[in-house]
Amino acid sequence: MSTQFRFERPEELAIVARPSLSVAVVISCRDGQEKLDLVLASLSAQSYPSKLLYVYIIDDGSQMAITIPALAPKNTNIIRYKNSPSHWGKTAATNDCVAKLKEDVLWFVDADMVFEPTHLAEHMKWHHDADDYVVLGWKRFVQDWGYTPKDLYHSLSQGEFHNLHKQSWSKDLWEERINRTDDLRKPALEGYRSVVGATFSIMNSQWSKLGGYNRELITGEDTELGWRIFANGLRTVPERNAHSWHLGFSTVEKNKDLIQRHNDPALAQFIPEMHSIRSRYEFDWKVPTYKIFFDVRNLKLSELLEYQTELLALKGTSAHFTLLGPWKVLRNRYSPTTDEYADLREIHSWLKGDERFDFVEIDSDVNLTIDDIIELIEPSSTAHYIFAEGKLKVNFKHLSDYQLLKGEGLTGIVDQEDNRAFVIFGPALARAVSTGGWVYENISQQWGISWLTHERFMQVNVGKRSRIGRFFRFIKREGKKVNSPKQLAIFIKKLAKLVLRKVLRNG
Fold it and tell me: Which CATH class is domain 290-462?
Protein backbone atom coordinates (compact mmCIF):
# COMPACT_ATOMS: atom_id res chain seq x y z
CA MET A 1 0.00 0.00 0.00
CA SER A 2 1.13 3.50 -0.77
CA THR A 3 2.34 5.52 2.21
CA GLN A 4 1.40 8.91 0.83
CA PHE A 5 1.34 11.60 3.50
CA ARG A 6 -2.18 12.16 4.82
CA PHE A 7 -4.63 12.32 1.87
CA GLU A 8 -2.08 13.66 -0.60
CA ARG A 9 -1.60 12.07 -4.02
CA PRO A 10 0.01 12.83 -7.39
CA GLU A 11 -1.25 15.98 -9.08
CA GLU A 12 -2.17 13.99 -12.17
CA LEU A 13 -1.60 10.63 -13.79
CA ALA A 14 -1.52 9.56 -17.41
CA ILE A 15 -3.88 6.89 -18.70
CA VAL A 16 -2.11 3.54 -18.47
CA ALA A 17 -0.87 2.38 -21.88
CA ARG A 18 -0.89 -1.32 -21.01
CA PRO A 19 -3.37 -1.89 -18.19
CA SER A 20 -3.43 -5.20 -16.38
CA LEU A 21 -6.22 -4.91 -13.79
CA SER A 22 -9.57 -6.54 -14.49
CA VAL A 23 -12.78 -4.59 -13.81
CA ALA A 24 -16.23 -5.70 -12.73
CA VAL A 25 -18.85 -3.13 -13.73
CA VAL A 26 -21.69 -3.46 -11.21
CA ILE A 27 -25.12 -2.14 -12.16
CA SER A 28 -27.93 -2.73 -9.70
CA CYS A 29 -31.34 -1.94 -11.15
CA ARG A 30 -35.04 -2.57 -10.81
CA ASP A 31 -36.82 -2.07 -14.13
CA GLY A 32 -35.58 0.76 -16.39
CA GLN A 33 -34.60 -1.33 -19.44
CA GLU A 34 -34.67 1.69 -21.80
CA LYS A 35 -32.06 3.68 -19.87
CA LEU A 36 -30.03 0.56 -19.15
CA ASP A 37 -29.70 -0.06 -22.90
CA LEU A 38 -28.05 3.35 -23.23
CA VAL A 39 -25.71 2.59 -20.31
CA LEU A 40 -24.60 -0.63 -22.00
CA ALA A 41 -24.12 1.13 -25.34
CA SER A 42 -21.79 3.66 -23.71
CA LEU A 43 -19.94 0.85 -21.93
CA SER A 44 -19.42 -0.82 -25.31
CA ALA A 45 -17.56 2.30 -26.44
CA GLN A 46 -15.12 2.36 -23.52
CA SER A 47 -11.44 2.56 -24.46
CA TYR A 48 -10.37 0.28 -21.61
CA PRO A 49 -9.49 -3.19 -23.00
CA SER A 50 -12.65 -5.25 -23.43
CA LYS A 51 -10.82 -8.42 -22.39
CA LEU A 52 -10.42 -6.89 -18.89
CA LEU A 53 -14.02 -5.67 -18.68
CA TYR A 54 -16.89 -7.68 -17.19
CA VAL A 55 -20.39 -6.26 -16.71
CA TYR A 56 -22.75 -7.58 -14.05
CA ILE A 57 -26.35 -6.39 -14.10
CA ILE A 58 -28.09 -7.17 -10.82
CA ASP A 59 -31.83 -7.43 -11.49
CA ASP A 60 -33.35 -6.61 -8.12
CA GLY A 61 -36.90 -7.85 -8.68
CA SER A 62 -37.89 -6.06 -11.89
CA GLN A 63 -41.53 -6.43 -12.91
CA MET A 64 -40.37 -7.25 -16.43
CA ALA A 65 -37.13 -9.19 -16.33
CA ILE A 66 -34.09 -7.25 -17.51
CA THR A 67 -32.52 -8.54 -20.74
CA ILE A 68 -29.18 -7.99 -22.43
CA PRO A 69 -29.64 -5.91 -25.61
CA ALA A 70 -27.78 -6.52 -28.86
CA LEU A 71 -25.44 -3.60 -28.19
CA ALA A 72 -23.60 -4.47 -24.99
CA PRO A 73 -20.04 -5.38 -23.91
CA LYS A 74 -19.09 -8.97 -24.75
CA ASN A 75 -18.76 -10.10 -21.14
CA THR A 76 -22.15 -8.92 -19.89
CA ASN A 77 -24.06 -11.03 -17.39
CA ILE A 78 -27.40 -10.72 -15.62
CA ILE A 79 -27.71 -11.83 -12.01
CA ARG A 80 -31.32 -12.41 -10.95
CA TYR A 81 -31.47 -11.48 -7.30
CA LYS A 82 -34.18 -13.38 -5.46
CA ASN A 83 -36.05 -11.01 -3.17
CA SER A 84 -37.33 -12.05 0.25
CA PRO A 85 -38.58 -10.12 3.31
CA SER A 86 -35.05 -9.84 4.67
CA HIS A 87 -33.16 -9.67 1.35
CA TRP A 88 -34.25 -6.95 -1.03
CA GLY A 89 -33.10 -3.58 -2.33
CA LYS A 90 -29.82 -2.24 -3.70
CA THR A 91 -27.79 -2.71 -0.51
CA ALA A 92 -28.56 -6.40 -0.01
CA ALA A 93 -28.52 -7.25 -3.71
CA THR A 94 -25.19 -5.53 -4.31
CA ASN A 95 -23.47 -6.99 -1.24
CA ASP A 96 -24.63 -10.54 -1.91
CA CYS A 97 -23.76 -10.52 -5.60
CA VAL A 98 -20.47 -8.61 -5.41
CA ALA A 99 -19.18 -11.00 -2.75
CA LYS A 100 -18.85 -13.63 -5.50
CA LEU A 101 -16.91 -11.46 -7.96
CA LYS A 102 -13.18 -12.00 -8.43
CA GLU A 103 -12.17 -9.04 -10.62
CA ASP A 104 -9.46 -6.70 -9.30
CA VAL A 105 -11.52 -3.50 -9.36
CA LEU A 106 -15.22 -2.87 -8.80
CA TRP A 107 -16.80 -0.02 -10.77
CA PHE A 108 -20.28 0.81 -9.48
CA VAL A 109 -22.55 2.71 -11.85
CA ASP A 110 -26.19 3.73 -11.82
CA ALA A 111 -28.50 2.35 -14.48
CA ASP A 112 -29.15 5.81 -15.98
CA MET A 113 -25.66 6.99 -16.96
CA VAL A 114 -23.87 7.66 -20.25
CA PHE A 115 -20.07 7.63 -20.13
CA GLU A 116 -17.37 9.25 -22.21
CA PRO A 117 -15.23 6.51 -23.87
CA THR A 118 -12.21 7.24 -21.66
CA HIS A 119 -14.25 7.37 -18.44
CA LEU A 120 -13.15 4.00 -17.08
CA ALA A 121 -9.54 4.46 -18.23
CA GLU A 122 -9.43 7.68 -16.20
CA HIS A 123 -10.52 5.71 -13.13
CA MET A 124 -8.09 2.89 -13.72
CA LYS A 125 -4.96 5.02 -13.93
CA TRP A 126 -5.36 5.58 -10.18
CA HIS A 127 -5.93 1.94 -9.32
CA HIS A 128 -2.80 0.99 -11.25
CA ASP A 129 -0.88 3.57 -9.17
CA ALA A 130 -1.94 2.36 -5.69
CA ASP A 131 -4.54 0.15 -4.06
CA ASP A 132 -5.99 2.66 -1.58
CA TYR A 133 -7.85 4.96 -3.98
CA VAL A 134 -11.61 5.35 -4.30
CA VAL A 135 -12.27 7.15 -7.58
CA LEU A 136 -15.34 9.27 -8.31
CA GLY A 137 -16.47 10.04 -11.85
CA TRP A 138 -17.54 13.53 -12.89
CA LYS A 139 -21.16 13.90 -13.95
CA ARG A 140 -23.70 16.42 -15.17
CA PHE A 141 -27.47 16.02 -15.21
CA VAL A 142 -29.58 16.24 -18.37
CA GLN A 143 -33.35 16.45 -18.63
CA ASP A 144 -33.93 15.27 -22.20
CA TRP A 145 -32.32 12.80 -24.58
CA GLY A 146 -33.56 11.39 -27.85
CA TYR A 147 -30.83 9.11 -29.11
CA THR A 148 -31.05 5.36 -29.52
CA PRO A 149 -28.34 3.00 -28.24
CA LYS A 150 -27.03 2.64 -31.81
CA ASP A 151 -26.97 6.43 -32.36
CA LEU A 152 -25.28 6.92 -29.00
CA TYR A 153 -22.57 4.35 -29.74
CA HIS A 154 -21.87 5.98 -33.10
CA SER A 155 -21.64 9.47 -31.55
CA LEU A 156 -19.29 8.27 -28.83
CA SER A 157 -17.11 6.46 -31.37
CA GLN A 158 -16.82 9.73 -33.30
CA GLY A 159 -15.73 11.72 -30.23
CA GLU A 160 -19.05 13.52 -29.90
CA PHE A 161 -19.69 12.91 -26.20
CA HIS A 162 -19.63 16.60 -25.22
CA ASN A 163 -21.99 17.49 -28.10
CA LEU A 164 -24.72 15.08 -26.99
CA HIS A 165 -26.41 17.71 -24.80
CA LYS A 166 -26.53 21.47 -25.14
CA GLN A 167 -28.08 21.98 -21.71
CA SER A 168 -26.96 20.27 -18.50
CA TRP A 169 -26.73 20.94 -14.78
CA SER A 170 -24.15 20.19 -12.16
CA LYS A 171 -24.76 19.38 -8.53
CA ASP A 172 -23.50 22.70 -7.20
CA LEU A 173 -23.05 21.68 -3.57
CA TRP A 174 -21.04 18.61 -4.60
CA GLU A 175 -18.74 20.55 -6.90
CA GLU A 176 -18.33 23.38 -4.38
CA ARG A 177 -17.20 20.86 -1.76
CA ILE A 178 -14.70 19.36 -4.20
CA ASN A 179 -13.27 22.79 -4.96
CA ARG A 180 -13.15 23.84 -1.30
CA THR A 181 -11.27 20.72 -0.23
CA ASP A 182 -8.63 20.84 -3.00
CA ASP A 183 -10.24 17.88 -4.75
CA LEU A 184 -10.46 16.04 -1.40
CA ARG A 185 -6.75 16.27 -0.66
CA LYS A 186 -7.89 18.21 2.41
CA PRO A 187 -11.30 16.67 3.06
CA ALA A 188 -11.60 17.79 6.72
CA LEU A 189 -14.50 15.87 8.30
CA GLU A 190 -17.08 16.59 5.62
CA GLY A 191 -15.38 15.19 2.53
CA TYR A 192 -17.10 11.84 2.98
CA ARG A 193 -20.30 13.40 1.61
CA SER A 194 -18.70 13.49 -1.83
CA VAL A 195 -19.00 9.72 -2.32
CA VAL A 196 -22.05 9.07 -4.50
CA GLY A 197 -23.04 5.87 -6.21
CA ALA A 198 -23.58 7.06 -9.78
CA THR A 199 -20.01 6.23 -10.79
CA PHE A 200 -17.28 5.23 -8.35
CA SER A 201 -14.60 2.55 -8.35
CA ILE A 202 -12.66 0.76 -5.63
CA MET A 203 -10.31 -2.20 -5.38
CA ASN A 204 -12.23 -5.40 -4.70
CA SER A 205 -9.94 -6.12 -1.74
CA GLN A 206 -10.76 -2.74 -0.17
CA TRP A 207 -14.49 -3.26 -0.69
CA SER A 208 -14.24 -6.59 1.11
CA LYS A 209 -12.21 -5.06 3.92
CA LEU A 210 -14.81 -2.32 4.40
CA GLY A 211 -17.61 -4.89 4.41
CA GLY A 212 -19.48 -3.41 1.46
CA TYR A 213 -22.64 -1.42 1.98
CA ASN A 214 -24.28 -1.18 5.40
CA ARG A 215 -27.14 -3.66 5.29
CA GLU A 216 -29.21 -1.61 7.72
CA LEU A 217 -29.63 1.14 5.12
CA ILE A 218 -32.14 1.18 2.28
CA THR A 219 -31.11 4.54 0.84
CA GLY A 220 -28.12 6.76 1.56
CA GLU A 221 -25.86 3.70 1.57
CA ASP A 222 -23.25 5.54 -0.52
CA THR A 223 -22.99 8.37 2.01
CA GLU A 224 -22.41 5.99 4.90
CA LEU A 225 -19.88 4.03 2.84
CA GLY A 226 -18.15 7.35 2.14
CA TRP A 227 -17.73 7.91 5.89
CA ARG A 228 -16.16 4.48 6.36
CA ILE A 229 -13.89 5.08 3.37
CA PHE A 230 -12.73 8.27 5.08
CA ALA A 231 -12.44 6.72 8.54
CA ASN A 232 -10.30 3.91 7.11
CA GLY A 233 -7.80 6.36 5.65
CA LEU A 234 -8.48 5.61 1.99
CA ARG A 235 -7.87 8.39 -0.52
CA THR A 236 -10.91 9.57 -2.48
CA VAL A 237 -10.18 11.02 -5.92
CA PRO A 238 -12.76 13.07 -7.84
CA GLU A 239 -11.49 12.51 -11.39
CA ARG A 240 -12.46 15.59 -13.39
CA ASN A 241 -11.60 13.92 -16.71
CA ALA A 242 -13.99 11.00 -16.18
CA HIS A 243 -17.03 12.66 -17.78
CA SER A 244 -20.58 11.31 -17.80
CA TRP A 245 -24.18 12.34 -18.33
CA HIS A 246 -26.83 11.47 -15.76
CA LEU A 247 -30.10 10.83 -17.59
CA GLY A 248 -32.72 12.69 -15.58
CA PHE A 249 -32.68 13.92 -12.01
CA SER A 250 -32.07 11.63 -9.08
CA THR A 251 -34.77 10.30 -6.76
CA VAL A 252 -33.25 12.37 -3.94
CA GLU A 253 -33.60 15.61 -5.90
CA LYS A 254 -37.24 14.92 -6.75
CA ASN A 255 -38.27 13.78 -3.25
CA LYS A 256 -35.84 15.69 -1.05
CA ASP A 257 -38.00 16.19 2.06
CA LEU A 258 -39.27 12.60 2.16
CA ILE A 259 -35.80 11.17 1.57
CA GLN A 260 -34.29 13.37 4.30
CA ARG A 261 -36.97 12.34 6.78
CA HIS A 262 -36.11 8.71 6.07
CA ASN A 263 -32.31 9.07 5.84
CA ASP A 264 -31.48 11.52 8.62
CA PRO A 265 -32.02 9.17 11.58
CA ALA A 266 -30.68 6.14 9.72
CA LEU A 267 -27.43 7.82 8.67
CA ALA A 268 -26.94 9.71 11.94
CA GLN A 269 -26.70 6.37 13.75
CA PHE A 270 -23.49 5.57 11.86
CA ILE A 271 -21.92 8.93 10.97
CA PRO A 272 -20.71 10.97 13.98
CA GLU A 273 -20.07 14.04 11.81
CA MET A 274 -23.83 14.44 11.36
CA HIS A 275 -23.95 16.18 14.75
CA SER A 276 -26.46 18.82 13.61
CA ILE A 277 -28.96 16.00 13.11
CA ARG A 278 -27.86 14.15 16.24
CA SER A 279 -28.29 17.31 18.29
CA ARG A 280 -32.06 17.25 17.78
CA TYR A 281 -32.49 14.45 20.31
CA GLU A 282 -30.75 13.14 23.42
CA PHE A 283 -30.14 9.65 22.06
CA ASP A 284 -27.16 7.34 22.13
CA TRP A 285 -25.85 6.39 18.70
CA LYS A 286 -24.44 3.22 17.20
CA VAL A 287 -21.16 4.94 16.31
CA PRO A 288 -19.93 7.41 18.97
CA THR A 289 -18.20 10.70 18.26
CA TYR A 290 -15.28 9.70 20.48
CA LYS A 291 -13.81 6.50 21.86
CA ILE A 292 -12.02 7.13 25.15
CA PHE A 293 -9.45 4.83 26.71
CA PHE A 294 -8.97 5.91 30.32
CA ASP A 295 -6.46 4.59 32.82
CA VAL A 296 -8.51 5.07 35.99
CA ARG A 297 -6.06 3.63 38.53
CA ASN A 298 -5.55 7.05 40.13
CA LEU A 299 -8.93 8.58 39.45
CA LYS A 300 -12.08 9.29 41.43
CA LEU A 301 -15.59 8.84 40.06
CA SER A 302 -16.30 12.57 40.36
CA GLU A 303 -13.21 13.36 38.27
CA LEU A 304 -14.17 10.81 35.61
CA LEU A 305 -17.68 12.21 35.36
CA GLU A 306 -16.29 15.73 35.06
CA TYR A 307 -14.25 14.64 32.04
CA GLN A 308 -17.37 13.07 30.56
CA THR A 309 -19.47 16.21 31.10
CA GLU A 310 -16.91 18.47 29.44
CA LEU A 311 -16.51 16.14 26.47
CA LEU A 312 -20.25 15.83 25.86
CA ALA A 313 -21.11 19.49 26.46
CA LEU A 314 -21.85 20.01 22.77
CA LYS A 315 -25.33 18.63 22.08
CA GLY A 316 -25.29 15.69 19.69
CA THR A 317 -21.90 14.47 20.90
CA SER A 318 -21.53 10.92 22.17
CA ALA A 319 -18.68 8.82 23.56
CA HIS A 320 -17.80 5.29 24.50
CA PHE A 321 -15.41 4.79 27.41
CA THR A 322 -13.03 1.88 27.89
CA LEU A 323 -11.86 2.03 31.50
CA LEU A 324 -8.48 0.44 32.18
CA GLY A 325 -7.90 -0.83 35.72
CA PRO A 326 -7.05 -3.85 37.92
CA TRP A 327 -10.70 -4.89 38.16
CA LYS A 328 -9.91 -8.40 39.40
CA VAL A 329 -8.82 -7.05 42.78
CA LEU A 330 -12.43 -6.03 43.43
CA ARG A 331 -13.32 -9.72 43.81
CA ASN A 332 -11.15 -10.07 46.91
CA ARG A 333 -12.54 -9.82 50.43
CA TYR A 334 -12.63 -6.27 51.74
CA SER A 335 -14.16 -4.00 54.38
CA PRO A 336 -16.15 -0.96 53.23
CA THR A 337 -14.49 1.10 55.98
CA THR A 338 -10.89 0.19 55.10
CA ASP A 339 -11.10 -0.46 51.35
CA GLU A 340 -7.86 0.56 49.64
CA TYR A 341 -9.64 0.26 46.28
CA ALA A 342 -12.64 2.38 47.29
CA ASP A 343 -12.25 4.81 44.36
CA LEU A 344 -11.88 2.00 41.82
CA ARG A 345 -14.82 0.11 43.32
CA GLU A 346 -17.03 3.20 43.27
CA ILE A 347 -16.32 3.71 39.57
CA HIS A 348 -17.15 0.08 38.80
CA SER A 349 -20.25 -0.05 41.01
CA TRP A 350 -21.84 3.04 39.47
CA LEU A 351 -20.95 2.45 35.82
CA LYS A 352 -21.07 -1.33 35.32
CA GLY A 353 -24.68 -1.17 34.09
CA ASP A 354 -24.07 1.67 31.64
CA GLU A 355 -23.45 0.34 28.11
CA ARG A 356 -21.30 3.38 27.30
CA PHE A 357 -18.60 1.98 29.61
CA ASP A 358 -16.44 -1.12 29.18
CA PHE A 359 -13.89 -2.43 31.67
CA VAL A 360 -10.52 -3.77 30.52
CA GLU A 361 -8.12 -5.46 32.89
CA ILE A 362 -4.58 -4.16 33.45
CA ASP A 363 -2.17 -4.93 36.32
CA SER A 364 -2.01 -2.60 39.30
CA ASP A 365 1.62 -1.67 38.70
CA VAL A 366 1.99 -1.97 34.91
CA ASN A 367 3.52 0.96 33.00
CA LEU A 368 1.56 1.25 29.77
CA THR A 369 3.68 2.07 26.73
CA ILE A 370 2.31 3.91 23.71
CA ASP A 371 2.38 0.64 21.81
CA ASP A 372 0.42 -1.10 24.58
CA ILE A 373 -2.26 1.55 24.36
CA ILE A 374 -2.47 1.59 20.57
CA GLU A 375 -2.90 -2.20 20.55
CA LEU A 376 -6.08 -1.71 22.59
CA ILE A 377 -7.61 0.49 19.89
CA GLU A 378 -9.32 -1.23 16.99
CA PRO A 379 -10.01 1.09 14.00
CA SER A 380 -13.70 1.59 13.38
CA SER A 381 -16.07 4.28 12.10
CA THR A 382 -15.13 6.67 14.91
CA ALA A 383 -12.78 9.48 13.90
CA HIS A 384 -11.29 10.32 17.33
CA TYR A 385 -9.57 7.94 19.77
CA ILE A 386 -8.46 9.50 23.04
CA PHE A 387 -6.26 8.09 25.81
CA ALA A 388 -5.68 9.67 29.22
CA GLU A 389 -4.20 8.62 32.53
CA GLY A 390 -3.74 9.91 36.05
CA LYS A 391 -5.03 13.29 37.11
CA LEU A 392 -3.88 15.21 34.06
CA LYS A 393 -6.46 17.97 33.78
CA VAL A 394 -7.36 18.46 30.14
CA ASN A 395 -10.53 19.05 28.17
CA PHE A 396 -10.70 16.16 25.71
CA LYS A 397 -12.87 18.17 23.30
CA HIS A 398 -10.27 20.95 23.17
CA LEU A 399 -7.49 18.41 22.63
CA SER A 400 -9.40 16.79 19.77
CA ASP A 401 -10.16 20.17 18.17
CA TYR A 402 -6.50 21.13 18.45
CA GLN A 403 -5.47 17.91 16.73
CA LEU A 404 -7.88 18.59 13.87
CA LEU A 405 -6.53 22.13 13.54
CA LYS A 406 -2.94 20.84 13.32
CA GLY A 407 -3.92 18.02 10.98
CA GLU A 408 -1.72 15.47 12.72
CA GLY A 409 -2.28 11.77 13.17
CA LEU A 410 -1.49 11.89 16.89
CA THR A 411 -1.35 14.89 19.20
CA GLY A 412 -0.40 14.38 22.84
CA ILE A 413 0.37 16.25 26.02
CA VAL A 414 2.33 15.26 29.12
CA ASP A 415 2.51 16.89 32.56
CA GLN A 416 5.32 17.17 35.09
CA GLU A 417 4.37 13.81 36.66
CA ASP A 418 4.58 12.12 33.23
CA ASN A 419 0.83 11.67 33.01
CA ARG A 420 -0.17 11.50 29.36
CA ALA A 421 -3.17 12.27 27.21
CA PHE A 422 -3.34 12.00 23.45
CA VAL A 423 -5.79 11.81 20.59
CA ILE A 424 -5.35 9.68 17.47
CA PHE A 425 -7.14 10.60 14.25
CA GLY A 426 -9.16 7.62 13.01
CA PRO A 427 -8.04 7.67 9.34
CA ALA A 428 -4.40 7.88 10.45
CA LEU A 429 -4.77 4.90 12.77
CA ALA A 430 -6.59 2.79 10.17
CA ARG A 431 -3.97 3.40 7.50
CA ALA A 432 -1.10 2.82 9.92
CA VAL A 433 -2.57 -0.52 11.00
CA SER A 434 -3.24 -1.68 7.43
CA THR A 435 0.30 -0.77 6.35
CA GLY A 436 1.75 -3.35 8.77
CA GLY A 437 4.75 -3.03 11.05
CA TRP A 438 5.18 -0.48 13.82
CA VAL A 439 1.90 1.43 14.02
CA TYR A 440 3.27 4.42 15.95
CA GLU A 441 6.06 4.92 13.41
CA ASN A 442 3.57 4.56 10.53
CA ILE A 443 1.39 7.29 12.02
CA SER A 444 4.44 9.52 12.36
CA GLN A 445 5.55 8.98 8.74
CA GLN A 446 2.12 9.02 7.13
CA TRP A 447 0.35 11.70 9.16
CA GLY A 448 2.64 13.36 11.68
CA ILE A 449 2.92 13.26 15.49
CA SER A 450 3.52 16.01 18.03
CA TRP A 451 3.79 16.17 21.83
CA LEU A 452 3.39 19.25 24.01
CA THR A 453 3.93 19.83 27.68
CA HIS A 454 0.73 20.38 29.58
CA GLU A 455 1.81 23.94 30.31
CA ARG A 456 2.39 24.66 26.62
CA PHE A 457 -0.97 23.21 25.63
CA MET A 458 -2.72 25.35 28.21
CA GLN A 459 -0.93 28.41 26.84
CA VAL A 460 -1.99 27.81 23.25
CA ASN A 461 -5.48 26.55 23.99
CA VAL A 462 -6.69 28.49 27.05
CA GLY A 463 -7.34 32.15 27.50
CA LYS A 464 -9.18 34.89 25.68
CA ARG A 465 -7.16 34.69 22.47
CA SER A 466 -7.62 30.94 22.23
CA ARG A 467 -11.36 31.16 22.90
CA ILE A 468 -11.72 33.76 20.16
CA GLY A 469 -9.73 31.55 17.81
CA ARG A 470 -11.91 28.52 18.55
CA PHE A 471 -15.04 30.63 18.09
CA PHE A 472 -13.98 31.79 14.63
CA ARG A 473 -12.89 28.29 13.66
CA PHE A 474 -16.38 27.12 14.67
CA ILE A 475 -17.98 29.79 12.48
CA LYS A 476 -15.72 28.92 9.56
CA ARG A 477 -16.30 25.17 9.89
CA GLU A 478 -20.06 25.30 10.34
CA GLY A 479 -20.56 28.14 7.88
CA LYS A 480 -19.19 25.99 5.07
CA LYS A 481 -22.14 23.64 5.50
CA VAL A 482 -24.75 26.32 4.79
CA ASN A 483 -26.27 25.60 1.40
CA SER A 484 -29.98 26.29 1.91
CA PRO A 485 -32.34 28.44 4.03
CA LYS A 486 -32.86 25.41 6.27
CA GLN A 487 -29.12 24.97 6.82
CA LEU A 488 -28.78 28.71 7.49
CA ALA A 489 -31.47 28.50 10.19
CA ILE A 490 -29.65 25.54 11.80
CA PHE A 491 -26.37 27.46 11.72
CA ILE A 492 -27.89 30.57 13.34
CA LYS A 493 -29.56 28.43 16.02
CA LYS A 494 -26.27 26.68 16.88
CA LEU A 495 -24.43 30.00 16.95
CA ALA A 496 -27.03 31.52 19.29
CA LYS A 497 -26.82 28.54 21.64
CA LEU A 498 -23.03 28.80 21.74
CA VAL A 499 -23.08 32.51 22.53
CA LEU A 500 -25.79 32.06 25.18
CA ARG A 501 -23.83 29.25 26.84
CA LYS A 502 -20.71 31.42 27.01
CA VAL A 503 -22.69 34.37 28.43
CA LEU A 504 -24.30 32.21 31.14
CA ARG A 505 -20.96 30.64 32.00
CA ASN A 506 -19.31 34.05 32.43
CA GLY A 507 -22.32 35.65 34.10
Answer: alpha beta
